What we know:
This protein is of the alpha+beta class. The protein has helices spanning 23-33, 49-79, 104-116, 173-188, and strands at residues 2-3, 17-18, 83-85, 96-100, 138-141, 154-158, 164-168.
Amino acid sequence: MGSLIKNPGGGLAQTGGYIAGKKEYVEMCASRLTAPGLGKHVGASLGTSRAMLQGFYMAPHTVAECLQGAVFTAALFERLGFDTSPKADSVRSDIIQAIRFEDGKKLSIFCQMIQAAAPVDSFVVPEAWDMPGYEAQVIMAAGAFVQGSSIELSADGPMIPPYIAFMQGGLTYANVKLAALMAATKLLAL
């Protein structure tokens, strides 16, 4: 099971999910998600079928764009002396890029610049806060078209040592590159 507002939706699906696996289990899930006896022959699309299908079509390109952005960000911050995971030259299995700042102010600045480069709510300045479910305050940046969409550029991190930012997504390489350069410029000015 998965969400279409993540990678498979290509940044275009506004809602929805998918179920994959053995036929009998998919049928079992479908029978419980719709009216009895209808199974996977019907389902809620809320008028978004076109965006879902476009998202599936665009997903490989969109994921490649955010991976290219993550590699760029890792390379840039490695050159600036920060520890990153994965490294710029590592084989990747995910769209998440971690950067270790060792300083809460630097973590905050990084997240604030990711937000400042966002296509939505770029005027918002993220601040760390007591988020339910976390032991420490967390700072989060995500100026996304679809709230919670991890394929769109976002960054967050707990305000505890070693102050690691977890950046993920990016619908376009250009946007990720801009955000990384904005963050690096601001951090170099400290």
